[in-house]
UniProtKB/TrEMBL annotation:
Family: Belongs to the exbB/tolQ family.
Domain of life: Bacteria
Principal place of residence: membrane
Keyword terms, alphabetized: Cell membrane, Membrane, Protein transport, Transmembrane, Transmembrane helix, Transport
InterPro entries, sorted: ExbB/TolQ_transport (IPR050790), MotA_ExbB_proton_chnl (IPR002898)
Pfam families referenced in this protein's UniProt entry, alphabetically: MotA_ExbB
Location relative to the cell: Cell membrane; Membrane
Ranges where the MotA/TolQ/ExbB proton channel domain occurs: 73-194
Membrane-protein topology: Multi-pass membrane protein
TM spans (from-to): 14-34, 118-138, 158-182
Protein name as catalogued: MotA/TolQ/ExbB proton channel family protein
């Protein structure tokens, strides 16, 4: 006797679509976990030592500290040091440029989260659609049978129809939780970017010697053979 679940999957396109949704959501969640935790965590520790070096007046060492593979926070701080050293932008324009780069980094961190949001919203609706279509088929079969209605056939059609709603909820609930959690992580990373930006601009405005030393600090291209500060 064939498995009813196998028969349902083979016959109901809604279940197939929900299965594709679940695979897409799983792939997206795994990618974002790598993106937000592994890739960022490897290099996020560059920024705090660099800020400490800037506060001690060791501006060249701070700049060399960031000449390593870096995440968004280190990239933003490195860009701020480079722009400040060039002296091409006054402080208001420097702030605007760093804000623009911070927004681009935040958008990159939030990429692919919309996929999870769409799946979380559509999955229960697709499940409900499958249930409605299954109920229509069940009642059409009951109408066609007339007075010869078999309750077993009707109840079997109804539970199979309701199974699509259960499948939609099983997809939507974990995807919604994952989306909310990852979205919160992105918000925290974005707040860290904003904090780093304000911290650097505060140092730059409060310490004239910082501006002077950055203007004479070597560029990354001229210091790529130097020994980095541990």
């Amino acid at each position: 006797m064939p498995n009813p679940l196998t028969t349902l999957v083979a016959a109901d396109p809604v279940i197939v679509v929900l299965g594709l949704f679940s695979l897409c959501a799983l792939s997206t969640v795994l990618y974002k976990l790598w993106h937000l935790f592994i890739a960022f965590r490897v290099h996020r520790d560059n920024t705090d030592p660099a800020f400490a070096l800037l506060g001690q007046g060791k501006h060249r060492e701070a700049k060399m500290r960031l000449n390593t593979p870096k995440g968004p926070r280190a990239q933003l701080l490195s860009a701020g040091i480079s722009l400040a050293a060039s002296g091409a932008l006054p402080q208001p324009e420097l702030r605007n440029e760093l804000l623009r780069q911070a927004r681009l980094s935040a958008q990159h961190m939030a990429s692919h989260l919309r996929i999870l949001e769409v799946i979380a919203n559509l999955a229960p609706l697709l499940g409900l659609l499958g249930t409605v279509l299954g109920m229509i088929d069940a009642f059409r079969a009951m109408e066609a049978a007339g007075s010869q209605v078999n309750p077993a056939i009707l109840s079997g059609g109804i539970w199979q129809a309701l199974l699509t709603t259960a499948a939609g909820l099983l997809v939507a609930i974990p995807v919604s939780l994952a989306h909310s959690w990852l979205e919160r992580r992105v918000e925290r990373e974005t707040m860290a970017l904003q904090n780093d930006l304000e911290r650097f601009l505060g140092l730059y405005a409060a310490q004239p010697q910082l501006r002077n030393s950055l203007a004479t600090a070597p560029t990354p291209e001229t210091t790529h053979n130097a020994v980095a500060v541990p």
